[in-house]
Write a structure and sequence with these properties.
Elements: H1 61-74, H2 85-89, H3 112-115, H4 132-135, H5 139-151, E1 156-157, H6 158-165, H7 169-181, E2 185-190, E3 196-200, H8 202-212, E4 223-224, H9 225-235, H10 244-250, H11 258-270, E5 274-277, H12 284-295, E6 298-302, E7 304-307, E8 310-313, E9 337-341, E10 344-347, E11 359-361, E12 366-368, H13 371-374, E13 379-382, H14 392-405, E14 407-411, E15 417-421, E16 425-430, H15 440-443, E17 448-451, H16 457-471, E18 474-475, H17 479-489, H18 499-513, E19 519-520, H19 522-533
Parallel strand pairs: 4-7, 5-16, 5-17, 8-12, 10-13, 13-16, 18-19
Antiparallel strand pairs: 1-3, 2-3, 6-9, 7-8, 11-12, 14-15
Helix pairs in contact: 5-7, 5-8, 6-7, 10-12, 16-18, 17-19, 18-19
Length: 535
C-alpha cells in the first residue's frame, strides 16, 4: 500500500444503533444510526429497544496502519523516523488553594546519564476520515445530527455544518444531498464559494423533532468507543518513563526537600497508585496536582464518545485544558478530537460511587463520562480521603480490580457493560494513617505510601524568604528568626508548609490597607499571627 499519509487523514470511529436505514450501510459491520431513517412518504419510525442494538465493530487494520504512518510522518524531525511505522501498524490491538509563587528547592543536578535530552517520541494525532467506514459513523446517523443542528439554528452553509459536526465538508454535502432528495432540507441560496445555504423543510422539522425524542445531542459527531480505546494505547502513561529532569521541571514552583524528591521520583515513574498522607497544610494536594507534569506532553481525546449507541460526553471544559494544534504537525486532523494537556482530576468530599459510572440524563438523553475516564493518561487525585461522603472501604473495593488489571468495567444505561482502560495515576491524599483506612489486601495494591511531614526549621525559614521574594515583601533583618521563636517555638506550634504563604498574604493585605510599602517585621508578624492563629 503506498504511503499517502500526507494527503490521508483518519483514526477510527463507530455509530450508535437504531432502525436500519432505507439504503444499505457502507459496510455491514457498522451499526446503523441512533436515529431512525427518514422517508419522504412516511413519518419516522420508532427506535428499536436497547436490547436489539448491534454489537460494536473493531478498529479496521487499514485505519490503524494509516494512523501509524501519520505518527511516523510527525516523528520525521531531523531526517529520521523515531519509530518503524510497520511495527506499530500490524501490532495487536496541596491542598487545593491557590498559592503565591514558590521557588524550587531541588538544586541537585541530574545524574550525568539523565542530563542528556531524551529523543522526541512520535505523537499520536487522529487523522481526518475519508469515508463513513473510516469515520465509524453512518450517513443516517449524521443526517440526524444535521437536522437537529438546523432545528436549533437558522439556515446554515454546508461549511458551517461541517465545522459544527467536525466532519469533512465532502461527507456533509453527501448527507445534505440525500436529505434534499428526501425533501427534509431545501437549498435556499448559494454562496460565492459555491456552497449552499441550507434550511429545514416542514417535513425536516417534523423528522428533527422525532429524532430529539431519541437524543437531543447537538455537536461534534461521536467517535466510536473502539477508536478511543485504540488511541489510548498510543498515549498511555505506561509508555512514559519520567526521570530526574522531568520531576525537577514538574515541581519547579514548589519547595520540595531532597528527601521528599527522592521518595516521590520512583513512585511517579512507576505509574502505580500511591498514598500521600500526613498533617494538613504541608502540600499533599499541591504535590499530587503537579505529578501529571512529570509525564509531559499533550494528548488527544474525542469530544463525545459513542458507547453502545449512547452519546457520552468525554471532554469537560472544567477539567481539560485545550491546547491549540500545531498547523505544521497536525495537518489533516480529525476535528471530532481535541488536543489537551494531560489531565489532573481532583475529587474531594463530594465524591460518590455514582460519579465513577456513566451517568445518563433523562432530559437530554445524553451521558456524562465518569471521572476516571476523564482522567485517563493523567492523574486522578482523591483528596481528603476518608473524610468524604463515601466510606473508604466502599471506594477502595470499587478500585481493587482496576488497580490490579489496569482496566475497568462501566455500565451503560441499558445494563450492558463495556471494558474501559484505567490508565490514570491514582493518588489518595489524606490526613489519616493508611492502615486506618484500608486492610492489608488493599494496601498491598498501593505500593507507595509517602508521608508528607512538617518542614524542618531551616526549610521553613528558607521558604519564608522565597515566598517573600515572590510577593515582593521586604523582610526586616532577623524577622524570620523572630517569627519562628515567638510564634512557633514559644507556643509549641508545628510549622506547616502553607504558613509562609498564608501569613505573608495577610501582610500584603495589611500594607495595602494602610497604604505603605510591603514590609515584614516583628510588628507585622504579631498582627497577622493574631489573626491567623487566633491568639
Amino acid at each position: 500500500m503506498p504511503d499517502d499519509s500526507k494527503s490521508r487523514p483518519p483514526f477510527p470511529t463507530r455509530p450508535p444503533p437504531s432502525t436500519p436505514p432505507q439504503r444499505p450501510a457502507p459496510r455491514p459491520a457498522v451499526p446503523a444510526s441512533a436515529a431512525p431513517a427518514p422517508s419522504p412518504a412516511a413519518a419516522p419510525r420508532p427506535a428499536p429497544s436497547p436490547a436489539a442494538a448491534p454489537r460494536a465493530g473493531t478498529v479496521p487494520a487499514d485505519v490503524r496502519a494509516a494512523q501509524a504512518r501519520a505518527m511516523a510522518q510527525v516523528s520525521m524531525q531531523g531526517g529520521r523516523p523515531a519509530i518503524q511505522p510497520v511495527a506499530v501498524a500490524v501490532g495487536p490491538q496541596g491542598d487545593g488553594r491557590s498559592a503565591a509563587p514558590r521557588a524550587v528547592a531541588v538544586s541537585r543536578p541530574p545524574p550525568p546519564d539523565t542530563a542528556r535530552s531524551k529523543p522526541e517520541e512520535p505523537e499520536f494525532y487522529p487523522l481526518e476520515p475519508r469515508s463513513w467506514d473510516e469515520a465509524g459513523i453512518s450517513d443516517t446517523q449524521t443526517m440526524a445530527l444535521v437536522l437537529r443542528f438546523l432545528l436549533g439554528s437558522s439556515a446554515q452553509t454546508g461549511k458551517n455544518i461541517a465545522e459544527a459536526l467536525g466532519l469533512p465538508l465532502a461527507m456533509i454535502r453527501e448527507v445534505l444531498d440525500r436529505a434534499k432528495n428526501e425533501k427534509l432540507v431545501a437549498y435556499r441560496s448559494t454562496t460565492v464559494m459555491g456552497d449552499y445555504v441550507t434550511e429545514l423543510t416542514e417535513t425536516g422539522q417534523t423528522w428533527a423533532h422525532e429524532s430529539r425524542k431519541l437524543t437531543s445531542y447537538v455537536g461534534h459527531a461521536p467517535v466510536p468507543w473502539e477508536h478511543y480505546v485504540e488511541a489510548m494505547k498510543y498515549q498511555a502513561l505506561t509508555n512514559k518513563n519520567p526521570g530526574v529532569e522531568d520531576l525537577q521541571r514538574a515541581f519547579a514552583d514548589l519547595q520540595v526537600s531532597e528527601d521528599m524528591f527522592d521518595r516521590l521520583g520512583p513512585a511517579v515513574t512507576s505509574g502505580k497508585a500511591m498514598f500521600l498522607f500526613g498533617e494538613p497544610g504541608n502540600g499533599k494536594t499541591s504535590l499530587a496536582e503537579r505529578m501529571t507534569r512529570c509525564f509531559g506532553g499533550t494528548i488527544w481525546i474525542p469530544r463525545t464518545l459513542d458507547i453502545g449507541g449512547y452519546y457520552v460526553k468525554l471532554f469537560d471544559a472544567a477539567i481539560h485544558k485545550p491546547v491549540e494544534p500545531d498547523p505544521t504537525r497536525h495537518r489533516g486532523r480529525d476535528r471530532r478530537w481535541i488536543r489537551i494537556e494531560r489531565p489532573t482530576v481532583i475529587a474531594g468530599g463530594e465524591l460518590t460511587l455514582e460519579m465513577l459510572e456513566i451517568r445518563y440524563d433523562e432530559t437530554s438523553r445524553t451521558c456524562e463520562a465518569p471521572m476516571q475516564l476523564k482522567a485517563n493518561a493523567g492523574t486522578l487525585v482523591i483528596d481528603d480521603f476518608g473524610r468524604g461522603n463515601t466510606k473508604p472501604r466502599d471506594l477502595l473495593n470499587r478500585w481493587i480490580f482496576p488497580l490490579e488489571k489496569k482496566r475497568d468495567f462501566l455500565s451503560i444505561p441499558d445494563g450492558r457493560k463495556v471494558e474501559a482502560p484505567f490508565d490514570a495515576l491514582l493518588v489518595f491524599s489524606t490526613n489519616l494513617e493508611p492502615r486506618d483506612l484500608a486492610d492489608e489486601a488493599f494496601l498491598r495494591r498501593i505500593p507507595y505510601k509517602i508521608h508528607v511531614g512538617d518542614p524542618a526549621e531551616d526549610e521553613f525559614a528558607e521558604l519564608v524568604v522565597k515566598v517573600a521574594e515572590g510577593m515582593k515583601v521586604t523582610l526586616e533583618p532577623h524577622s524570620v528568626k523572630y517569627l519562628v521563636e515567638r510564634h512557633y517555638k514559644m507556643n509549641k506550634r508545628p510549622m506547616r508548609m502553607c504558613h509562609p504563604r498564608d501569613l505573608l498574604a495577610q501582610i500584603v493585605h495589611l500594607c495595602e490597607y494602610e497604604r505603605r510599602p510591603l514590609k515584614a517585621g516583628p510588628a507585622e508578624w504579631d498582627r497577622v499571627a493574631a489573626n491567623y492563629f487566633g491568639i
